[in-house]
Amino acid sequence: MVSSKIHNELSWFLNLSRLPQLETLVFEPGMAKSIHHARVLIKQRHIMVGKQIVDVPSFSPLGGGRPGREAQNLKAASQKASGGDDDEDKDDE
Hints:
The chain is mostly helical and about 90 residues long. The chain has a domain at about 20-80: Structural Genomics Hypothetical 15.5 Kd Protein In mrcA-pckA Intergenic Region, Chain A (Roll), CATH 3.10.290.10. The chain has five helices and two strands, in the order H-H-H-E-E-H-H. It has helices at about 5-20, 20-25, 35-45, 70-80, 85-90; strands spanning about 50, 50-55. Strands 1-2 form a two-stranded antiparallel ribbon. A hairpin with a 2-residue loop joins strand 1 and strand 2. Belongs to the universal ribosomal protein uS4 family. This is RNA-binding S4 domain-containing protein.
């Protein structure tokens, strides 16, 4: 019998591998003739996600990475305007 910790780790890994990668999202609707063709289109910078050209076939648009520069600046500006803590200035020292 598999322990619950190992089972949870295995489930997490299997769910991670199910996240759609950009190459799959290009191939499935018929934008590319094959997975290889989808990878080539992506590497040749023919594919955009939002306003950004993406050249990494393993890019996951559902990944939800850390916020970009503009989002970080907007958050910092709104915190300053509301009188929030200046933790960012303390971290830089």
